[in-house]
Amino acid sequence: MPSLLNASISKLNGGLQKARINIEGFFDSFEVHFNPDQYTITENGQIRSIPAKTGDKAIIQYVGGVTSTLNLTLYFDTNAKMEMGGVQQKAQDVSSITHRISNALNVNQLLNRPPIVTFDWGSTQYHGFVLKVNTTYTMFTMSGMPVRAKVDLVLQEVEPPFYVKLNPIKLINQTKALILSQDTSLWNMASNEYSDISQWKTIAQANNIMDPLNMAVGTVLKIPALNK
Fold first, then answer.
1. Per-residue pLDDT tens for 27-47?
2. Beta-strand relationship, 124-140 and 220-223
3. Which of 49, 54, 115, 120 is the most exposed place for a label (fewest CB within 10 A)?
């Protein structure tokens, strides 16, 4: 398996930078066991072909911006490993890791939408929704516990600030959540969500915010439903 070569090189070089998977909303972040040997970013322009009423050539119409998808394969191995001093680590169920990725297909109750997954490695930081996960388990213990897996992952790109382009579905009497970006504030959140800038206090109270001018970018804020 080519990814094992990465592991050998890592030992020789004193440890290479590992790729990370970050899952929004779960505050979940973990390193892959073997860096990918390659990944593919596919970009498509949104063009529509309309049959012409007369003549042979169709009418070509531009209908939107460029869309991007990331395809990559990740390898995970939780079989027993020899540690420093000759202490052997017990094998663990690798599905505890792979399920964290496949669960990102589901709606996060805090966000009211699937979470955004970030692939972070070197100069690449790719944010996207999970479109497809294909997990293949390739090694098992005598009891049948999977300890090695290959995960083929496809992400649909999403550009920050996420809350602007990905407002959660508005549900009646249900709290939702937004992510604070550099160019937003409680005031414009209140204006966008409630059509009333004075409701910034509602958001502040729901999140125990004492100073609305001193908040960290990336903070997940609860946006409560207004009592009618």
1. 578 889 999 999 999 988 777
2. unpaired
3. 54
